Structure formats: C-alpha cells, structure tokens
Amino acid sequence: MTKQAETTARDSLWRRREVRRGGRGERPSGLDRERITAASVRLLDAEGLAGFSMRRLAAELNVTAMSLYWYVDTKDDLLELALDAVYAELRLPEADRTDEDWRGQLRRLAGAYRALLVRHPWLSPLAGRYLNIGPNSLTFARVIQRLVHRAGLPAHGVTGAISAVFQFVYGYGTIESHFLTRIAETGLSPEEYFRQSMTLVDELPGTAEAAGGSGDVMAARAGDTVAEMLDRDFGFALDLLIAGIEALAARS
Fold it and tell me: Residue 231: pLDDT above 70?
C-alpha cells in the first residue's frame, strides 16, 4: 500500500462526476445501476459481507463480472450504493410538523433505525467505512437534525444530543443483529439460547457475580420472550436519553 493510500480517506462515488470507464464487450441489455444495487442488497442479506464479490453478484444477475464495470468502478462503489439504498426503507416522519410531538417522532425513527440495522447486519460495518453522503442517508440525517432542533436545546448541544440517541441506536442494533445471527447459527430458538447462556453464566466460577446475578435477571424477566426483553430494554434506554434531552433543554 502506498503512503498516499494510507493517509488519504477513500473518496465517495457520490462526489465523482466522471463517466464510467465501461466494461469489456457490449453493454448488457436489461441491466442498470438500480437493478445492480437491488441485487447487491439481496446478496448481502443472504451471504453477508464475506460472501459478497463482483463475480458472485454477476452470477446472480446472469451477466459477466466485467459487464458490471459499465456501471461502477469498484466493489466499494457497489457496497456504497447498497448502503445508501437500504436507508430508503426508513419511514421518515415529517420533522417540521409542530402539531406532532417531537418525542414520539424521535422514538419511532430510532426504532425504525434499530430495525434496519437488525434486518441488514452488514449495514453497521459499512456505515463506519464510508462517508454516508448518498441521497437517502443525507435525507435521514436532515430529518434527525430537524427533530432534535425542536427539543429546544442550544445550538451547540444539538449534535451531542443526536450522537447520544443515534449512536446508542447504532450500537444496540449492531449488537442485537450479531446476537440474533449467532442464535440462528445454533438452530436454537432465542429463548432456548438465552436460557442456556444464563445457565452457563451461573455455572462458571466468578461469572455470576460479574454479571450481577443472572438468576435475578431471569426472575425479573420471567414470562418475557427474548424479543420482548430486547424491546423493553431499548425503549427504557431511549426514554432515559429523551428525558435527558428534555432536562437539558429546560435548564438552557
């Protein structure tokens, strides 16, 4: 790797204006960037980042790998397109509607973002790799900013409030997606996996104390499914963050 490659951030395809260099042979009919992007999302959902390649995508589309270069320059371009495409799945609130409570709108948007991260486990690592300046991502960011502005925080506190809420959601959704993927690989139900994990914690010397007493945790959550536990913890943590925003806004 050259020194320049090591010290320069990767550019985004959304900033480039040059024409694609083109693949080899004739341009394939029935193929366009939208179809390629949709196929990329499906392949990433099915096989993850490790299974994604230009060759594998070309096979899905029944074209040659070189024909994809009519539409993108690199595999990174495809990943950046797929990343922005899934943000279009979010149902965004009308952030400027003052007749709707910003707290409820923020809760719904945070929940939708969490669900998106769980639905597409490959999203979170890509969101940390690219600039996230595609049209859908920028629309999402603008709606978040408008919602948090309505809380009444001073201008210098808005970005911190956004970070508190949506970096929490990013972390929660990322860990949840890893957890559910791990469960799926075992063939167990989420409830079976959780019970086995808690039993293991109790049996290993020193781990029960470090975990705060898994028996107490199980007792407090008796009758809940894993999904209900995750939803309740997420909702409670989100309420804490929104209450903190309200308190700081009132103090300001």
Answer: yes
Which value, to the nearest 10 degrees, does the dihedral of the CA atoms of residues 73, 79, 85, 90 take? -160
Q: Which residue has the higher pLDDT, 193 or 26?
A: 193
Q: 3-state SS string over the chain?
A: CCHHHHHCCCCCHHHCCCCCCCCCCCCCCCCCHHHHHHHHHHHHHHHCHHHCCHHHHHHHHCCCHHHHHHCCCCHHHHHHHHHHHHHCCCCCCCCCCCCCCHHHHHHHHHHHHHHHHHHCCCHHHHHCCCCCCCHHHHHHHHHHHHHHHCCCCCHHHHHHHHHHHHHHHHHHHHHHHHHHHHHHHHCCCHHHHHHHHHHHHHHCCCHHHHCCCHHHHHHHCCCCCHHHHHHHHHHHHHHHHHHHHHHHHHHC
Q: Are 40 and 34 in contact (CB under 8 A)?
A: no
pLDDT at 75 over 60: yes
Residue 58 confidence (pLDDT) above 90: yes
d(CA 113, CA 93) in angstroms, rounded, equals: 12
Name the pLDDT band for 221 (thresholds 50, 70, 90). Answer: low
| Chain-centroid distance, C-alpha 250 | 31
CA-based angle 115:117:119, to the nearest 5?
65
